[in-house]
Amino acid sequence: MKVAVVILNWNGKGFLEQFLPSVIKYSKDDAEVVVADNGSTDNSIAFLKESFPEISTIELPENKGFTGGYNTALKQVDADYYVLLNSDIEVTPNWIKPIIQLMQEDEEIAACQPKILAFKEKERFEYAGAAGGYIDWLGYPFCRGRVFEETEIDKGQYDDTREVFWATGACMFVRSKVFNELGGFDEHFFAHMEEIDLCWRMKNMGHKVYYSPNSIVYHVGGGTLGKENPQKTFLNFRNNLYLLLKNLPLEQLVFVLLLRFLLDGIAMIRFLTQGNAKSTIAVIRAYLEVAINTLRVGRGNDTPPSQKLKGVYQNSIVIEHFIHKKKKFSELNQKSFF
User: Using CA atoms, how far apart are residues 113 and 168, in angstroms rounded to an integer?
Assistant: First the structure.
């Protein structure tokens, strides 16, 4: 049984300098450590070869994004389990074994994530993944420990191992056989929400996605695109629409898209009232690109969509959060989850 920790780097020499030593220290007995460089221009490769000659490196000629970078790099990695790890993550002792053991005990688990806490506030859950990802029936993602921008303090309230809807790409353990059978990440996504699409396709194939609190990592987050960046707004809205188009059953899709168009229109007005016209334009761009691409290539998914999947919230997280002011996962109606 072989495990490979694969870090996709793009101009992240500072993060490699800061966090790679702990990754090596706490992984060397359990996994091979590989750094795949996504066409960096900051001297990352020279730094790696000089400072960490024992580490395997994969050099990609250009930035292929999160999706293309990993898809290309993982074809060159021989392992039963891939551990996709962001370069801005601090790992902890014994962070690999508990999850690999869990996945070995249940062959239906295709992906799993650890507990993700914030590097700068180590008692608080981190935005990208927290204690496992969920999605509401309209396609809005959220986490145990994080609802929209609200993150919770970790008080042990989510210390149960459980099935979730999606595992974060910031630190994702994935069964290589399933990853390769599904063709890896959808490269249309480039970056953002590609892991949700992958997990959704896994679930449509009958696999499980899990969260384990027995492994803990600390994530800096926001290292590539800040939350207010219009390009991030574009990717988030565009990729969320791709998620729905690809993975929802057709009988649900039309109704959901109509409601999403209304809600996203409200978001555009909100951006304008905040003086953020660039984000409004980004949402319009997202809709136009999805419409053109769908007319050109169709829905883009050969995996048969399923009706009821574990981890889907049957209420609207938008209404729960912005109207009913629910800021914590524990405040949601737990009976409304499949």
Answer: 7
158 contacts: CB under 8 Å, gap ≥ 6: 115, 130, 131, 132, 144, 145, 211, 213, 329
The more confidently predicted of residues 229 and 258 is 258
CA–CA distance, 80 with 83 (Å, rounded to integer): 10
| Residue 329 within any structural domain of the chain | no
Question: CA 321, CA 318: separation in Å to the nearest integer?
Answer: 5
- Alpha helices per DSSP H over 82-229: 97-105, 176-181, 194-204
In a domain, 332, yes or no: no
Domain with 241 in it: 230-309
For 77-98, the pLDDT digits (tens) are 999 999 999 999 999 999 999 9
Q: Are residues 192 and 272 in the same domain?
A: no
Is residue 133 within 8 A of residue 167, CB to CB? The reply is yes
- Proportion of the chain above pLDDT 90, given as a percent: 89
Mark whether 197 and 287 lie in a shared domain.
no
In-domain check, residue 301: yes
Encode pLDDT of 186-215 as tens digits.
Answer: 998 998 899 999 999 999 999 999 999 999
How many other CB atoms are there within 10 angstroms of residue 19's CB atom?
A: 23
Query: Which residues, 6 or more positions from 262, have their beta carbon under 8 angstroms from its beta carbon?
Result: none
Reported for 21-27, long-range contacts at CB under 8 A and 24+ positions apart, including other chains, are 22/90, 22/91, 23/85, 23/89, 23/91, 24/52, 24/54, 24/55, 26/91, 26/92, 26/93, 26/94, 26/95, 26/96, 27/91, 27/95, 27/96
